[in-house]
Amino acid sequence: MSTTVVSPAPVWDVINGYAAYAALVTAVDLGVFDAFEDDAALDAGELTRRIDGQSTEALVLLADTLVSLGLLSHDGSAYRRTPVAARYLVSGAPHEMTALVRLSPGPAASWARLAQTVRAGRAAVGVGDDPGAFYPDLVAATAPTQRAVAAATAGELDARGWLPQAPTVLDLGAGSAAWATAFLAVRPDAAAVAVDLPEVIGTTERLAAAFADRLTIVAGDYLDVALPAADVVVLGHVLRAEPADRARALVRRAVEVAGRTGTVVVADYPRPDPVGPGAADRDAVLASARHELLLSLTMLASTGGRGVTEHELRDWCADAGASVVARLEPLPRQHVFLIRPDTSSVAGPDKEIPA
Ligand SMILES: C[S@@+](CC[C@H](N)C(=O)[O-])C[C@H]1O[C@@H](n2cnc3c(N)ncnc32)[C@H](O)[C@@H]1O
Questions:
Q1: Helix, strand or coil, per DSSP, at residue 64
Q2: Model confidence at 49, in pLDDT bands (50, 70, 90)?
Q3: Which domains are seen in the chain, by residue range?
Q4: Exposure check for the chain: N or C terminus, fewer CB within 10 A?
Q5: pLDDT of residue 350
């Protein structure tokens, strides 16, 4: 009688995720991807020399592992970086993700506390407790990606005719101000206001210096500071890190500030709604959302939030008298929601919305 053995492969794949992550971080630290100047083909000896290595054998193990991960290729005699590595893992490339590789998982200590966090329902300690220690580096690391996503989104709003003459853009939790400055780049007649925490705005000023003449930077909690009326209000990757009550209040504030004719832009990584298709389909839905689920788990581990579902976002919008009218994916895995008021019942501020 034959018995079917259930393979432990999925368990191994998860265990090996730790080593795969370390291999990527190490390759970035050693400058492996930078070593292939002009996308050259390098044999193991030359690659070892270029990273100041002393052991070709050890380098071959690392490089072969990177081949297995799809980041290098090998034609039998030499290594090359793959198009993915050339685009995202080379220092100074427009879409560089190297700093993000290290920072995206958040503090290692948060993962060590995850069991306690899941039991309690929220993290006892989060990056928000000391924003200056984490966010300046994170927002500098995410800036290249977000500039590209924001540029595409700003172009889309312009093409839809949703940017009036001399539009004003409000970027809440602006970080690098990648979003505000993308609108300023697309529309030379635009002006923008970027809001971020006092510990972070020095970084905002530095990274957005090229647009200083049209960008006003405001320090404070985006739920507390007075906000100007705006034609576009951006919530870029902030809802997922907030508890639901604060996220709902933030959406409401953004809709109010955008008034009767403005647009609220939410960029985030929505995880699947808690209710959905029945068992088999549901498994497939969750499997295809692994990226969004793991990023949401990262939020639970390190912030007061736990990601955001599309259902929640639509609910918060409805609560504020607005609706999601379009969903974009300007770059793979980068989701953007365009939100507009439902009716003229939404407040249309003349100048300022008080806290
Ligand atoms: C993940 S970063 C996103 C930066 C940028 N919006 C983007 O999409 O690239 C979150 C930003 O929100 C800021 N932030 C967090 N809590 C905030 C608060 N209560 N008020 C204002 N900014 C806040 C952080 O300092 C950080 O710059």
A1: helix
A2: very high
A3: 9-93 (1.10.10.10), 125-353 (3.40.50.150)
A4: N
A5: 35
**Measuring from atom 3 of ligand 1, which residue has the nearest CA?**
237
Q: Which of the four pLDDT bands, split at 50, 70 and 90, describes residue 39?
A: confident
Residue type, 23: A
CA of 241 to the centre of ligand 1 (A): 9
Q: Are 269 and 332 within 8 A, CB to CB? A: no
Measured distance CA(71)–CA(312) in Å, rounded: 36
Cα dihedral 203→168→339→318 (10° resolution): 100
Split at pLDDT 50, 70, 90, the class of 345 is very low
Share of the chain above pLDDT 90, in %: 90
Expressed in angstroms and rounded, the spacing between residue 163 Cα and the centre of ligand 1 is: 24
Within 6 A (CB) of ligand 1 lie 131, 135, 139, 142, 146, 173-176, 178-179, 195-197, 200, 221-222, 236-238, 267
- Give 209-249 pLDDT, tens digit per residue: 999 999 999 999 999 999 999 999 999 999 999 999 999 99
> Which residue CA neighbors atom 1 of ligand 1 most closely?
237
Per-residue pLDDT at 351:
33
How far, in Å, from the CA of 134 to the mean position of ligand 1?
A: 11
Q: Is the pLDDT of residue 10 over 50?
A: yes
Q: Nearest CA to 147 among 180, 124, 116?
A: 180
Please compute the mean of the pLDDT values over residues 176-188 and round it to a whole number.
98
Report the nearest-CA residue for atom 26 of ligand 1. Answer: 175
191-196 and 215-219 as β-strands: parallel, antiparallel, unpaired?
parallel
In order, the DSSP letters of 207-268 are HTGGGTTTEEEEES-TTTS-EE--SEEEEES-GGGS-HHHHHHHHHHHHHHHTTT-EEEEEE
